[in-house]
Amino acid sequence: MDSLSHLDANGNPAMVDVGGKAVSRRTARARSIVALGPDIMQHITQSGLTQSGLAGVDIQTRKGPVFQTAIIAGTMAAKRTDDLIPLCHSLGLDNCQITITTDGPDAIVDCLVSTEGKTGVEMEALVGASVAALTIYDMCKALSHDIVIRETKLMEKTGGKRDFKRT
């Protein structure tokens, strides 16, 4: 197992020095799954929305359109990851795409980010997906508190020492 990269020789937290690394294309895709629960799915059904693959439609609440707001929040968060995670490098993202679909009672949030840089964008993708999921919770909690953000995970990354793809 490799050593932890964010510790110096004395075991203290340290930002990784990427000064000597070459610039390369970096991408990452993360996913959060939000279990909306039966009350919210009933609301979606009563609103005339389909329960499968909500791409292109949205849940309307008094706070506004849930998925559209979550996409904006997730994008904003991905761009500000270095403000939230102490040892992350500041990165200018070339792209951030968040999509939200449904699968039965679940909202599936995918966040794909890319940049040309010396360090990866996994944290930006994970933060984007996480904040979009939290925004869905916030926007829907008036309908039900039976919402569970089940998991957030890296699905794939390219660039750097090695590529990764979850199967």
TrEMBL record:
Keyword Magnesium: no
Keyword set, alphabetical order: Lyase, Molybdenum cofactor biosynthesis
Enzyme Commission numbers on file: 4.6.1.17
Gene3D superfamilies: Molybdopterin cofactor biosynthesis C (MoaC) domain
Molybdopterin cofactor biosynthesis C (MoaC) domain ranges (all copies): 15-160
Pathway assigned in UniProt: Cofactor biosynthesis; molybdopterin biosynthesis
Keyword flag Lyase: yes
InterPro entries: MoaC, MoaC_sf, MoCo_biosynth_MoaA/MoaC, Mopterin_CF_biosynth-C_dom
Pfam families membership: MoaC
Alphabetized GO MF terms: cyclic pyranopterin monophosphate synthase activity
Enzyme class (EC, first level): lyase
Function: Catalyzes the conversion of (8S)-3',8-cyclo-7,8-dihydroguanosine 5'-triphosphate to cyclic pyranopterin monophosphate (cPMP).
NCBIfam families: moaC, PRK09364.1
Protein name: Cyclic pyranopterin monophosphate synthase MoaC
Gene name of the record: moaC
